[in-house]
Amino acid sequence: MKNPVHVAVTGAAGQIGYSLLVRIASGQLLGPDQPVVLRLIEIEPAMGALEGVVMELQDCAFPLLKGIVPTCDLAEGFNNASWAMLVGSVPRKAGMERKDLLGINGKIFTSQGKAIQENAASDIRTLVVGNPCNTNCLIAMNNAPDIPKDRWFAMTKLDENRAKTQLAIKAGVDTTEVKNLAIWGNHSSTMYPNYFDATIGGKAATDVITDEAWYKDDFIPTVQQRGAAIIKARGLSSAASAANAAIDTVANIVRKTPSDDVFSVAICSQGEYGIEPGLMYSYPMKSDGEKLSVVEGIELNAFSKEKVVATENELKEEKAMVADLLP
Ligand code: NAD
Ligand code: LMR
């Protein structure tokens, strides 16, 4: 039996937490032979609700769940964690953009970054889900300067999954037929799902779905506005699909990427494709199971270049908005 891996989850009593925790505890995050200890971090007013979540987790009798630590103390919460999933933060309401949350949520990530650096295990990796996730991750990463920058991730996998499904529906194929579809840039309404590189059934997507106007007038806006559409329909932001994407992201990071596919996650840019170094920018990525790399050599046409820069510019604006939170 392997030693348990400690997984810290913030916002554990929230909507996403409710979907995410059972999946981690049942082995879907780190595999069916990997025991886990869940370190559940909440704010004081939510500790009562968290108690209920803990009771439910206990009532599942998950064979892989070797401990649960509910806490509102960051040092205890991140102690010995090898994965930190930073979900806890306020979701937007209808009519807001995600970056409108920076004033409320940004500061959460200064103390969490510091607490991760001081308390987590030496192999800690952090995935930020709480919005605006790219810039919240930038804040946490910059408040934890001793942790290597390649251990910080912000989630754009949900956007990739949304985009793949839209292409599959349009082409009338199974979602598994759609590959090589990456989200570039920010998890926001400027994100760019680069369909020019995507494949459907092994062929270029643009040879299968040839209607150029559909991509520009339907596909891109649908993917960019999907979060808002869900908030409008549910009165609440996406939760099950967000938790699912968080599980997918970690699986993509820790497993070798198939040769005919890529995945999307925002990482600390080192200037790839001319993007400003240091921004948390989503790229087409590959993993060898240990290390990640940005896919090189993608030819961006004029349309793609414009989109890739527009979403970079928004990330620069967000960075400027939180300058006082970046030491
Ligand atoms: P929710 O309001 O249901 O839950 C958030 C939880 O976070 C609450 O229980 C709250 O008490 C807790 N919390 C608040 N501040 C905290 C702090 N400082 N430390 C620890 N916990 C804290 O919201 P939700 O639906 O679970 O969404 C959480 C976040 O995830 C939101 O910001 C939302 O916009 C974002 N989100 C991101 C994606 C993505 O693709 N990146 C997708 C969906 C949702
Ligand atoms: C989403 O994409 O569903 C989340 O980021 C929630 C939101 O605010 O749209």
Automatic annotation (TrEMBL):
Residues 6-148 form the Lactate/malate dehydrogenase N-terminal domain. Substrate binds at R92, R98, N131, R162. Residues 156-322 form the Lactate/malate dehydrogenase C-terminal domain. Pfam families: Ldh_1_C, Ldh_1_N. Transmembrane segments: none annotated. Coiled coil: none annotated. It comes from the Bacteria. GO terms for biological process: malate metabolic process; tricarboxylic acid cycle. The active site is at H187. Keywords: NAD, Oxidoreductase, Tricarboxylic acid cycle. It catalyses: (S)-malate + NAD(+) = oxaloacetate + NADH + H(+). Its EC number is 1.1.1.37. InterPro entries: L-lactate/malate_DH, Lactate/malate_DH_C, Lactate/malate_DH_N, Lactate_DH/Glyco_Ohase_4_C, Malate_DH_AS, Malate_DH_type2, NAD(P)-bd_dom_sf. NAD(+) binds at G11, A12, A13, G14, Q15, I16, G17, N105, Q112, V129, G130, N131. It is an enzyme of class 1 (oxidoreductase). GO terms for molecular function: L-malate dehydrogenase (NAD+) activity. Belongs to the LDH/MDH superfamily. MDH type 2 family. Catalyzes the reversible oxidation of malate to oxaloacetate. This is Malate dehydrogenase. It comes from Pelagicoccus albus. The gene is mdh.
